[in-house]
Amino acid sequence: MEIRLDGTHYPVSTLGPGQRLGVWFQGCSLGCAGCMSRHTWDPGAGTSTMVGDVLARWKEALAGGAEGLTVSGGEPLQQPAALAALLAGAARLRDGARRHEGSAGPRPVDLLVYTGYEPGELTAERRTALARADAVITGRFRVAEPTRLLWRGSANQRLIPLTPRGAARYAPYLARESGDRRLQAATGADGALRIYGVPLRGELAELERRLRAAGVGLTERSWRP
Ligand code: SF4
C-alpha cells in the first residue's frame, strides 16, 4: 500500500519513551497557527513510498534495539488506510521480535501516534485506523496555550493510552513535565537540518537567535509561513 511521508528517522529520543523510529506523514489540512511543521501541510509534497518499505525500516530499528515507533506528521489520520496498515504491520513485527528475545525478558516496545484531531473528532474510520496504536496524543497545537507537559505542544493536547501495554508504558509520563532534552537535531539525506521533539513556547526563536549569534543563518524554516 502506498503511503506519502515527509520522512523517517532512527533513533529519535524526544517523542516518546526510549529510542524510537520516527515516521512523519505528509499532508495536514488542520492549519494550526504556530505549527512548527508547515512543510508537512502540502499533501502533494514529501515522498510517496510503500508501507512495506517503512516496515523494513521498523524491522531494522527493532533489530537495533528500538523501544517504540512514533507516528507524527503532518496528519497521520488523513491517510487512514495507510496508517492502519503501518500500525498492523509494526505490531506484527514487534510481537514476532518479542517471541525471540532472551531470558532477560521482552523490551517494552510501544506504538504512539500524534494526531491533531480532538478525541471527539475520532470517527469510526479514524478509530479503526488507530486500532493497533498503544497510545495517542490528540489535539490541535494551540500557540496561546503553552505547556511544559512532556511530549505535548499545548495544554489542550492529551496523552491517551489505548491498550494495556500503552497504559503500562505511559502511566509514569501522563503528568510529567519535560526536562532539558526536548529537542534533537539531525541532518537528513537532503542536507536539511531537522529538529525532532516538542519545543517550549519561544524555544525555536531562541534557537534561531543563538545560531545567528554563532554565525549560522537558517533558511526555509518550517515554522514560518
Ligand atoms: S500542529 Fe500538527 S495538526 Fe496542527 S497544522 Fe501542524 S501538523 Fe497539522
UniProtKB/TrEMBL annotation:
It comes from the Bacteria. Pfam families: Fer4_12. InterPro entries: Aldolase_TIM, Organic_radical-activating, rSAM, rSAM_sf. Its cofactor is [4Fe-4S] cluster. Keywords: 4Fe-4S, Iron, Iron-sulfur, Metal-binding, S-adenosyl-L-methionine. This is 4Fe-4S cluster-binding domain-containing protein. It comes from Streptomyces similanensis.
